[in-house]
Amino acid sequence: MAYNSINTYDARSVIPEFKGLLQYGDTINADPRYATDAENMETIGGTLQPAAKCQVLTPELDHPIETLARLYRRWYTGADEKEILIAASAGQLYYMLPSADAWTLLALPVAWPDTEYSSNVWSWVAYEINPEGSESPVDVLLMSNALDGMIMIRGDNYSVATVTTPKKFGVIERYAERIWGGAIIDDPDMLVYSAPFDPTDWAADTEIPEDGAGDISQPSWDGDSFTALRAFGSQLIAFKKNRVWRILGTDPGEYTFKEQFGGGSPYFNTIAVDSERIFLLDKTGVMVYDGLTVQAFYQAFAKEIFSRMNQAFLDQSCAVLWHGKYYCAFPLDTSETNNAVLIYSTDDNTWLLRTDVSVESFLAAEDNLYFTSTATPGQIWLWAENSWETEEATTDDTIWTSPWNDLGYKNYTKSNFDVYFTVECIGTAQITFSLETEKKVKTKTYSGVGTDAEAKQKRMHFGGSGRRFRLIIESTGGALWRIVGGILIVSEIDPD
């Protein structure tokens, strides 16, 4: 499709649909479907609309939630009883069913040496045990940190018990039906694995080693240490800050360690596994591990955003993969907390930015994406998308800016612009359109009132002239609208 056309009388620029960000190069005459700047917008199905408003859940704790975990109980028949949320706050653990209206304190393990846990930052894995005398397995949540060690929360009776391990693990992961642990304070180069099918058995089997537990050391002699473990298909990926190791094999006699190329992950909370790749963040932007190497991932698409990351506080960053999208929260500009979320869609290869949410941690469930926020310590939120369906738009302002366009004719002056678009709105909405040339900006506001989302064809005329132009679309927070079918811009032309 030709996006621009020109003849003796007028010139036409067509935006057939809306995509995400495209910020590489000088962006002049770039694909007009993409924006050089966009905040708090959605481009679902090629439409342009404000981002959906996220919802804060009512149950609240008195102190910030520093870890949010989830246990899915497969053996429960009630749909509202299958999922349990676990929160770590102020040295205690709490649980809640999503349908409940309050958190319940989990008792400390029997004979726990203190009245609280030493850390609120836990690594966790869902697994199962087969208690003696029980006819069916019990779903459990294993949690570990480098100060308290490992504990186990049973999904049937909410009891908490300690799990005796050789070391205290800062991170844990399930791989080949063993639990692996790393990020050990006094042994940063060591990984430890349990016996197969039993997360409570950490003893070696000298007669049949493959039936027992064990450990592996992979020193780098430079002060680096393991920070994260991720199961990745038929392999386990062990991340250090500056290196990545791939572990192949299912039994100790088969384990093969191989260092990968491209560096590690300094911000382990941003690591998220896709089907054939692993996303992560470093100081330059989003990276991807493809099974062989770690390399930059389409960073040029969001170049200006990555250049604004506050490097001094990037260790606060976090990310998650949910329903085909990678959500990465980090601090922008002078912020010391995560005040932005950059979203990459694996379905249509687009990037979008939201600055209306402050995310401290994510938790992906089957139907919901939960997150905690420094804006409301002690509460959790539900992520929301597609404001047209939820009928609630973000309360922050939105903006979408097209690339500069000279129609490929730098020797022509363009003037008297007509902008054609189709808009739908629910309730009262005001959308500001600005037609900018290198000389000045002309601005007009569309005010719409819709009760049945009836599509309305509109034309806006803008005076002014220039060699190149671009379109800027903005709206105030809370307005619910969308532009469908793209935009046509027609201008008069005058060659030199």
Structural account:
The chain has 496 residues and is an all-beta fold. It has two domains: 4-52 and 398-495, Jelly Rolls (Sandwich), CATH 2.60.120; 55-386, YVTN repeat-like/Quinoprotein amine dehydrogenase (Methylamine Dehydrogenase, Chain H), CATH 2.130.10. It contains two helices and 40 strands. The strands form ten sheets. The chain has a five-stranded antiparallel beta sheet, with no helix packed on it. Strands 3-34-39-36-37 form a five-stranded antiparallel beta sheet, with no helix packed on it. The longest helix has 5 residues, at 303-307. The two termini are 28 Å apart.
What labels describe this entry?
40 strands, mainly beta, single chain, elongated, 496 residues, Methylamine Dehydrogenase, Chain H, five-stranded antiparallel β-sheet, 2 helices
Q: How far from one another are the termini?
A: 28 Å
Work out the count of structural domains: 2
Residue share in helix: under 10%
Report the structural category: mainly beta
Class of the largest domain in CATH?
Mainly Beta
Q: What percentage of the residues does DSSP assign to strands (E)?
A: over 45%
Strand tally is 40
Outline the biggest β-sheet: 5 strands, antiparallel
Shape, per Cα inertia axes: elongated
What topology does this entry show?
Blueprint lengths: L3 E3 L3 E6 L21 E3 L1 E2 L6 E2 L4 E6 L6 E6 L10 E7 L2 E5 L7 E2 L17 E7 L8 E8 L3 E6 L5 E4 L7 E5 L2 E5 L7 E4 L20 E4 L8 E7 L2 E6 L3 E5 L7 E4 L12 E2 L4 E5 L2 E5 L4 E3 L6 H5 L10 E5 L2 E6 L9 E6 L4 E5 L6 E4 L4 E4 L6 E4 L4 H4 L7 E4 L10 E14 L1 E11 L3 E10 L5 E11 L2 E7 L5 E15 L1
